[in-house]
Amino acid sequence: MTAPRDYKSAVLATLTLAVFAAAVIVLHHALARLSLERVLDSLAAVPLHRELLSLLFAAGSYGTLTLYDYLALHGVRRPRPWHKVAPVSFIAFAIGHSVGLSSISGGSVRLRGYSRLGLGTLEIAGVMALVAGTFALGVGTLLAASLLFGAHDAARVLPLAVWQARALGAGLAALIAGYTLLTALKREPFCLLKRRIHLPPVRITLGQIAVGCVDLCFAAASLYILLPDGVRLSYVGFVGLYVLAIQAGVISNVPGGLGVFESVLILLLPGAPSDALLGAVLLYRIVYYLIPLVLGIGWLFGHEALERRRHVARFGSALRLWVENVAPQALAGAVFLAGAVLLISGATPEIDSRMEWLRGLVPLPVLELSHLSGSAIGVGLLILARGLLQRLDGAWWTTLLLLAGGILASLLKGLDYEEALLLAGVMGLLWLARERFYRRASLLDLRSSRAWVLGVVLVVGLAIFVAAVSYRDVQYANELWWQFAFDDDAPRAMRAGLLSVLLAAGYVLWQLFSPARQEPATPDAEALERAHAIAARNPDTLAYLALLGDKQLLFADAGDAFIMYQRSGRSIVALGDPAGNPARFEELVWRYRELCDRASGWPVFYQVSAERIPLYLDLGLSLAKLGEEARVYLPDFSLDGPQRAALRHDYRRCLREGVSFAVLTPGEVAGQMTRLKEISDQWLMRRAGAEKGFSVGRFAPDYLRRFSCACVLRQERIVAFANLWLTRSREEFSVDLMRYGDDAPKGVMDYLFVKLMLWGKEEGYRWFNLGMAPLAGLEQHPLAPFWHKLGRLVHRYGEPFYNFEGLRRYKEKFHPQWRPRFLASPGGMVLPRVLLDTAALIAGGIKETAWK
User: Confidence class of residue 802 from pLDDT cuts 50, 70 and 90?
Assistant: First the structure.
């Protein structure tokens, strides 16, 4: 089941690496005679007024980018004020532009931000699709305009004749115009390749074209103003070239289009001086990528701190609370960045004045060792960042030690106090968030995704490329490996690069050849006994379903909590909330998340409570309401009053039939197993069905022997029964199997429920759980989430098949209190597949889903 997904992931990773390698080769040949000093000189030669204009144009671009989301929210009919949209949009674009894979990096920011504004998962997915559409329309329109009105410039830089450039521009313009006309005429959704397509209104489309063009014009101007005077190309012609370079970087999936963007510019501007061109691009990346990234992260951190500041008295407490909540994700990225900084630093020459100052203070062996240590620590930080993301305490301690070592190495190898301050800042934040890294696990068990391994390889490869460019003027010789002197930066960079490559290669081989963990088998008798003891102390009786033995059990390290789960297709479905000691729940759900990741499955939690929602949101899961659970408050239950008239009638009729009620102990249940089996078979025969599973019990003698059993007797013969789930705290009790035989009187189940509630009230229980009513309590408002609208349709038109409303009405007879139950899953487009997998798990298979 996982092979197609693994194949696609491997192909995507290979293509990304291939594109990056091709870009590096192009840059290598184009910059073969280029020195780093000339690039820095050309960068320093850019006039201040041009730099300020570039900043102004970049600000105009990012201001226009916020209108992408503003229009998209109108497109999905969930408009929000611009001042609330702008922060989310800016942060998403600032991070997405620099990190790459903007649908994931920027998408996660939008998911968090727009969820707070009341949007559902599918609506946010629609926003992201329209944002991507705005970019595509802007690219197409500007490229068409550039080819039509700057055909001579296009013919000079592209292998096209003037008439061919104009023809291509006309074709692109026709496509844009055709799409715009389609949105004006086609107001109803239509099907294309078995997919239902909803086009935005024409006013939204026109707005997308305008906004996309203005944004890209600002962005192109931000780079155009920095280009050297040797570039003889009009602004109109450059816009088309810029659009091609940006699009190539987006398609490549390389973070920030690094290398790809530069390669396209160098290939299409062969007459431009390479050193000045590269200096302009480096300055552009600082202006358009680095500065917005820093501002975006700062804005995100400030917003989170202010959100939490309302709940604490002092700002320091608010800062610490924010750090603790977002630390694993943010600090993993910061540590990865710190590792990259150390590697790049080890690949570039040190500043001469600082080296002269160190000459009389630091012995040469210490300098050489510090240089090697800095690069080795850089690789280590790249790897350990993954452990921080998984909240491993061992990764936290080891990272602190490496950061301390990195600070010392930065100072000893060249007085790089800027790096030391950066590492110290990351170290301080890591120390503040120490309580968030609580998971005790061996670092030898650390497993990384393909994307993470690819990221480590790309950063190490980038460091090697920077070293090659920096020391292009140094003639290679074997003797360089053995030269040791204060002034010999190139040999030190070579040795550091070799060590980095060896460490990275070892890491890749370790990940490739580490044995895959096996999923745990179904529990043995000892595990079931442990689960029984935990379930008896758990306030939620659903935990008793672990005793069926059909689900795998994931226990906490302390052995006082567990998650029960089972696989179905791509979904690995946990039933209910974790059971046991609440102090173990956070660690336990993260271990479960990692188990799903190793097994290439989707993590799913079925029938979870509202109280535990923060656990699942921290895992990055989305919530969909399944229905509502009915619970009767026993201290207030009685048969008195007009509201209980129907119950009194059925109760008294059964008494006239001569029935009685009894509760059998587990030992007595074993003696009556033959009769109970006979009743169960009659009940299944009447329903013309078979046993279900997973979220409901089945008739299994070993399972039933563990519980007491409520029985209805007629002439001393059992005619109906229900096994009891009892909690030691007497907070709640419930029933699982509820079955009656052919000789049971009419209304016997009403009688059984009434007697159970009266018995539970006498025994001191607070709640009687009647179970869940599927698809109950879904919102009917026009602005309700898509899932609620779909659920209402299923509730209405699926009534002849499942009797949704009848089940709800039956439970309403007992006047219960209702509480919601949810499905936590990756959401989005995989939600229908998750629901099908879960239904198949309960029914026993895909085919059985339609017949049981």
Answer: very low
Q: What's the length of the chain?
A: 852
C-alpha 647/C-alpha 651 separation (Å) is 6
Please, is 6 exposed, middle or buried when counting C-beta atoms within 10 Å of its C-beta (0-12, 13-18, 19+)? exposed
Of 112, 113, 108, 128, nearest in space to 80 by CA: 113
Q: How many CA atoms lie within 13 A of 317 on its CB side?
A: 6
Token pair listed for 665: 């102990």
Residue in the block written with tokens 């540590």? 335
pLDDT digits (tens, 9 = 90+) for 518-573: 555 678 888 889 999 999 898 888 899 888 888 889 998 888 999 999 888 778 89
- Which amino acid is residue 541, in one-letter code? T
Angle at 608 between CA 605 and CA 612, to 5 degrees: 105
SS3 label, residue 554? strand
CA 258 to chain centroid: 24
- The bridge status of strand 571-575 relative to strand 602-609 is parallel
pLDDT at residue number 851: 44
User: What sign results for the dihedral spanned by CA atoms 631, 632, 635, 636?
Assistant: positive
Quick one: CA dihedral 734, 740, 744, 749, positive or negative?
Answer: positive
DSSP-derived secondary structure for 140-154: HHHHHHHHHHSHHHH
For the cut 90, the answer to whether the pLDDT of residue 85 exceeds it is: no
**Is the per-residue pLDDT at 360 higher than 50?**
yes
DSSP output for 518-546? PPP-S--HHHHHHHHHHHHH-SSGGGGGG
pLDDT at residue 42, as a whole number: 65
Largest CA distance in the chain: 107
Mean pLDDT of 720-730: 90
**CA-to-CA separations, 318 to 371, 431, 682, 696, in angstroms, rounded:** 39, 16, 63, 44
Residue/partner pairs of 675-678 with CB below 8 Å, 24 or more apart: 675/717, 675/718, 676/704, 676/709, 676/718, 676/721, 677/701, 678/741
Residue type at 308 in one-letter notation? R
| Joined tokens for residue 610 | 């509202």
What backbone torsions phi and psi does residue 747 show, to the nearest 5 degrees?
A: 80, 15
| pLDDT per residue as tens digits for the range 288-329 | 877 887 887 777 767 666 655 554 444 455 455 444 445 567
Strands 732-740 vs 767-774: parallel, antiparallel or unpaired: parallel
| Angstrom distance (rounded) from CA 839 to CA 608 | 16
Sign of CA dihedral 815, 816, 817, 820: negative
Backbone angles phi, psi at 706, to 5 degrees: -80, -10
The first and second tokens of residue 682, run together, are 């009659």
Query: Residues 724-735, buried b or exposed e (16+ Cβ, 10 A)?
Result: bbbbeeeebbbb
* Residues whose CB falls within 8 Å of the CB of residue 700, separated by 6 or more in sequence, listed in order: 548, 549
Pair of tokens at residue 408: 């010392």
Question: Whole-angstrom Cα distance, residue 529 to residue 532?
Answer: 5
Average pLDDT over residues 594-599: 80
- Inter-residue contact 740 to 683 (CB < 8 Å): yes
Contact between residue 729 and residue 597 where contact means Cβ atoms under 8 Å apart: no
Return the CA Rg of the chain.
33
Of the candidates 687, 726, 690, the residue with the CA atom closest to the CA atom of residue 706: 726
> What distance, in Å, lies between the first and last C-alpha atoms of the chain?
25
> Above 80 in pLDDT, residue 36?
no
Query: How are beta strands 709-714 and 659-664 bridged, if at all?
Result: antiparallel
CA dist., res. 711 & res. 735, Å (int): 12
The answer to whether residue 206 scores a pLDDT higher than 60 is: yes
> For 313, phi and psi rounded to 5 degrees?
-85, -30
Q: Which amino acid is at 611?
A: E
Q: Copy the structure tokens of residue 332.
A: 């993993």
Selection from 3, 611, 576 nearest residue 562 by Cα: 576
pLDDT number for residue 473: 73
Q: What is the pTM of this model?
A: 0.46
